[in-house]
């Protein structure tokens, strides 16, 4: 059976909503016995985690109108994963200047190696990749992910379009006579 919500918690919740929404909250339940409403809310919220209940109660401060039970249940739901902050993107730890210089040197070296391996910018839609590598080689702050994307784009282009100066596949099928 789902966990029951304590009656005292429902009392606090209704007191909070009454304080936040005032007459709007009272008008929502006009003509209906408040004890019946609280009993339905206790039943409807059964099984909701403590964290979910706290999330719903906190969300009341950002909700313009008093919620119905289904709306409050939605407020208790966790934020969808696609909208959650990724810790790697929000990490605010600082790197020392020496560590930053060391990391930039590694990125510059990686970009230089890729430019040497793949030559000068070719045509097609990958000029951006060569420009990115050149920017990294020139010392601009480029992330390792950007370098990896540029490398992947260049290698995919070379696989499908061949490299400049190399013979075309099948060009040696006929012997020179």
Descriptive overview:
With 177 residues, the chain is mostly helical. It starts with 6 loop residues before the first helix and ends in a 16-residue tail after the last helix. Helix 7 crosses helix 8 and helix 7 (97-118) runs parallel beside helix 9. The chain has 9 helices and no strands. Helices cover 60% and strands 0% of the residues.
User: What would you report as the Rg, rounded to the nearest angstrom?
Assistant: 31 Å
Structural class determined from secondary elements: mainly alpha
Biggest sheet record = none
Distance between the termini: 88 Å
Give the overall average pLDDT. 81
State the helical fraction. 55-70%
- Estimate the strand proportion: under 5%
* Total strand segments: 0
SSE pattern: HHHHHHHHH
Low-confidence stretches are none
Number of domains: 2
CA-based shape = elongated
Count of alpha and pi helical runs:
9
Write a concise synopsis of the structure shown:
The protein has helices at residues 7-21, 23-28, 34-45, 50-59, 69-76, 87-90, 97-118, 127-137, 144-161. With 177 residues, the chain is mainly α. The chain folds into two domains: 7-80; 98-161, no CATH class.
What are the defining features of this structure?
single chain, 177 residues, 2 domains, 9 helices, mainly alpha
Helix-strand layout with pairing:
Elements: H1 7-21, H2 23-28, H3 34-45, H4 50-59, H5 69-76, H6 87-90, H7 97-118, H8 127-137, H9 144-161
Helix pairs in contact: 1-3, 4-5, 7-8, 7-9, 8-9
